[in-house]
Amino acid sequence: MPAGTLYRGREGMWSWVAHRVTGVLIFFFLFVHVLDTALVRVSPEAYDTVVATYKSPIVALLEYGLVAAILFHALNGLRVIAVDFWIKGARYQKQMLWTVVGLWVVLMIGAIYPVLGHAAREVFGS
Amino acid sequence: MSTTETTASGIGPVEGAGASAYTVDNPAPLIEPPRKRTKKSPKSTRGNFEMAAWLFMRLSGVVLVVLVIGHLLIQLVLDGGVSKIGFAFVAGRWASPFWQVWDLLMLWLAMLHGANGLRTVINDYAERPNTRLWLKGLLYTATVFTILLGTLVIFTFDPNIR
């Protein structure tokens, strides 16, 4: 560990880094998402044209990434709340992080078909 | 190592001498706790904003877990996923006040939760006062604009626009 740093490494720091990065990414997506939804006030055609880009295979991968970021941020956020409000939260923060990671992996496997299925059918044909 | 082990009780020579030097008539000097508020210390001009912001992140976070994961299930997973989304789908959902309130609450909570998160990030990494000022100015402007735009869209949505 270099001198003069507050960063401690291990599960505590890296989950904090991941929480921060996913949070910023989700927030930037939210701006775009409110703007694209605002097109329903312009015309149905304008909205449908922009939403069509969300159905392309490449954007489907980005959507899978968005789901990944949101699920991690949500599950780890619940862990942060447990650390803050549960009396044994700090003691079990590592176990809770690995629970978060485990749940996240299971949910991400479950999200493959619903989120990426249509893209796979388009790319590989069905 | 060898010097401390010469005293049989395990008490070092300094502690041993110090403890016995103070009696009821000769008490140890009282040390004032650090940062203790006294009559002379100036009245705090800051409220509990940071504590309220901290609490808001946790309360809004719990609500957002439900709202956002429900939103993802409806938009990306159930009933054909993203393929079904279009103007007609939006019109169908916003015909119900339940989904209007859901989306409105999600918009406000997510925007405020994200804005406060980014405010923390700016506070952590932007060191020059001018940089902080401009980044926060940009953040607050974009946040207010987006919240108002989204609210306007939900309240003025017209399914028969064409």
As a percent range, the share of helical residues of chain A equals: over 70%
Number of domains of chain A: 1
Please provide the ordered H/E string of secondary-structure elements of chain A.
Answer: HHHH
How many distinct helices of chain B? 5
Order of helices and strands of chain B: HHHHH
Q: Judging from the principal axes of the Cα atoms, what is the shape of chain A?
A: elongated
Most extensive interface, chain pair and sizes? A-B, 38 and 40 residues
Question: What low-confidence regions of chain A span 5 or more consecutive residues with pLDDT below 50?
Answer: none
Give me the number of helical elements of chain A: 4
| Rg of chain A (C-alpha, Å) | 19 Å
**Poorly predicted spans of chain B:** 1-7
Can you tell me the CATH superfamily of chain A? Fumarate reductase/succinate dehydrogenase, transmembrane subunit
Computed Rg of chain B: 30 Å
Q: Assess the beta-strand content of chain A as a share of residues.
A: under 5%
**Overall SS class of chain B:** mainly alpha
Organism (chain B): Streptomyces thinghirensis
InterPro entries (chain B): SQR/QFR_C/D, SuccDH_FuR_B_TM-su
Keywords (chain B): Heme, Iron, Membrane, Metal-binding, Transmembrane, Transmembrane helix
Transmembrane segments (chain B): 55-78, 98-118, 138-157
